[in-house]
């Protein structure tokens, strides 16, 4: 009977070794699981923060845009977005806030019969310091608006409001 008892002891020792191995594996997997849950939580928080920040940004942009033109939510601009070519019916709200402010400065002058402005004058009207960096930033944005038809850049380097019609492929040339 000693041999049967010895066999049972061997099996019991093997089961203990297996249980200990499995406990170690569970502990290792629990650590991996905890790290993965922490990463998931960080990503969820980052996404929620981004959605909240974008919503606040869109709300601020919409408030400014509604003062000028009723904006559609699908046309909400994003900072750093491209300037689309101007076309009939396209609201100013599709532009990023910096571009909207430049247009607003020049739009205010048009009813009063005042002429075009230089980039430095636009910079001052925007309430910015007339440093070369600020002036060049405004000039760059105004040029981009002029290239897309939102403004007219005169040969003297001055800018004025001038929206031109964009001829579509089906449109007949005007006589």
Number of helices: 4
What is the residue-averaged pLDDT?
A: 78
Beta content: under 5%
The end-to-end span amounts to: 116 Å
How many whole angstroms does the radius of gyration measure?
Answer: 33 Å
Give the topology string: H per helix, E per strand: HHHHEE
Strand order of the largest sheet: 1-2
The strand count comes to 2
The dominant shape is rod-shaped
Account of the protein in words:
Strands 1-2 form a two-stranded antiparallel ribbon. A hairpin with a 5-residue loop joins β1 (151-153) and β2. It is built from four helices and two strands. The chain is mainly alpha-helical and 175 residues long. The chain has helices at residues 2-68, 97-109, 119-125, 132-147; strands spanning 151-153, 159-161. It has two domains: 1-68; 81-161, Arc Repressor Mutant, subunit A, CATH 1.10.10. The longest helix is centred in the first third of the chain and has 67 residues, at 2-68.
């Amino acid at each position: 009977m000693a041999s049967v008892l010895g066999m049972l002891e061997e099996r019991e020792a093997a089961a203990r070794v297996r249980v200990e191995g499995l406990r170690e594996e569970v502990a290792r997997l629990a650590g991996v699981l905890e790290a993965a849950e922490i990463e998931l939580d960080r990503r969820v928080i980052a996404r929620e923060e981004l959605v909240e920040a974008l919503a606040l940004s869109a709300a601020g942009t919409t408030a400014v845009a509604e003062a000028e033109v009723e904006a559609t939510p699908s046309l909400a601009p994003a900072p750093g977005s491209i300037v689309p070519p101007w076309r009939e019916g396209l609201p100013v709200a599709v532009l990023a806030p910096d571009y909207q402010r430049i247009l607003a400065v020049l739009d205010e002058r048009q009813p009063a019969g005042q002429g075009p402005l230089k980039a430095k004058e636009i910079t001052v009207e925007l309430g910015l310091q007339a440093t070369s960096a600020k002036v060049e930033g405004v000039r760059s944005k105004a040029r981009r608006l002029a290239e897309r038809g939102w403004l007219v850049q005169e040969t003297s380097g001055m800018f004025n409001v001038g929206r031109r019609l964009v001829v579509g492929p089906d449109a007949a040339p005007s006589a």
